[in-house]
Amino acid sequence: MPDMLKMDAFEACLHQQFTCDVEATSLALELIEVVALPPKESEEVRREPFSLLFLGPTEPILAQQTVQLKNDQLGELLIFLVPLGPKGEAMQYEAVFT
Fold first, then answer.
1. What is the DSSP string of 23-61?
2. Structure pTM?
3. Is the pLDDT of residue 51 over 80?
4. pLDDT tens digits for range 6-27
5. Is the distance from CB of 7 to CB of 1 less than 8 angstroms?
6. Do 93 and 56 contact (CB within 8 A), yes or no?
7. Where are the domains of the chain?
8. At residue 59, does pLDDT exceed 70?
9. Distance of CA 51 to CAs 5, 26, 33, Å?
10. What are phi and psi of 32, to 5 degrees?
């Protein structure tokens, strides 16, 4: 799984659907953005830091938590998602990898 948690693996999945099951409900999230982040100067870089931005339904809103996301290309991944707030008719979620 560590190879899947690289920026280029997610870039290949832009605009694809990821699903997660929460409280007996299956939610569809669309990966809409993959952004490179600057590394922290004080830390040794293990991989290029990056963030992912997902859009999902406005109800139910996922709490900040680790969820199991499923994608046809990447399979199943445990990812920590943070709700950022609404964007139009959708809810935004972010995952950051350092």
1. TTEEEEEEEEEEEE-PPPTTS--SS--EEEEEEE-SSSP
2. 0.89
3. yes
4. 999 999 999 999 999 887 788 9
5. no
6. yes
7. 2-97
8. yes
9. 11, 23, 8
10. -110, -15
